Amino acid sequence: ILGIKLLMTNRAKRRLATLVGLIILFGIILAILVAVRREFRDRAAAEASVKGMEFYAQGDWQLALPLLSQALSRQGDDLELRLALARTRSEVPTDFEGEHLRQALSLYSSTRDLAVSTPNVDRELLAEAYLGCARLQAMGIGEVPLIRLKESAEALWQFDPPDARAIPYLLFLRKIVSD
Which residues contact 146 (CB under 8 A, 6 or more apart)? Predict the structure, then answer.
């Protein structure tokens, strides 16, 4: 190699060939295991999505929550799944710190941002994301909730035609400002 002549016995050459063969074999086995594991996780997430959406449709928030969370870990850009998990989080009884509500608001907000950047998005999905944000912001969840509530309600009102579901939030803001 590079002008240096290596003296190797036939036995050393066989050992080196065996070692290289084993390394290649282990590499192939590892690649197969990784692919099988990925497929298993994808399949488990798909099953969790179906079961989670069933529990969600029945209003069984406690059973839907872990399944929808598992599904979202593999299907992060699914808007319907994101909204279902956000609603589920907002419906699950929460602790005194309101962690489920903060996480629900975060999901609604990120889903809204994803929906806005998605071409030909279903208007109802976008409206549901804005409404979820507005509902939690009206409860005082999140940073500067009234300013964010105003943004959410005005965005709903800017729909063509205006979404009437924004009216209660706009009236709520008007009442707070006048008080």
Answer: 137, 173, 176
| C-alpha to C-alpha distances, 164 to 85, 148, 177, nearest whole angstrom | 24, 18, 21
The tokens describing 160, both together, are 């063509």
Beta strand ranges found along 1-107 (DSSP E): none
Structure tokens at 108: 């609604």
Helix axes of 167-178 and 145-157: crossing angle, nearest 10 degrees: 140
Q: 82, 110 in Cβ contact below 8 A?
A: yes
Q: What is the pLDDT of residue 179?
A: 54
Continuous H helices in 59-78: 61-74
Q: pLDDT per residue over 81-107, tens digit each?
A: 999 999 999 888 766 677 888 899 999
pLDDT tens digits for range 126-154: 889 989 888 888 888 877 677 778 888 88
Residue 136 near residue 90 (C-beta atoms within 8 A): yes
> What is the C-alpha to C-alpha distance for residues 34 and 116, in angstroms, rounded to an integer?
35
Residues 6+ apart with CB under 8 A from 149: 133, 134, 137, 138, 169, 172, 173
Amino acid in the structure at residue 104: A
Q: Provide DSSP, 120-140.
A: T--HHHHHHHHHHHHHHHHTT
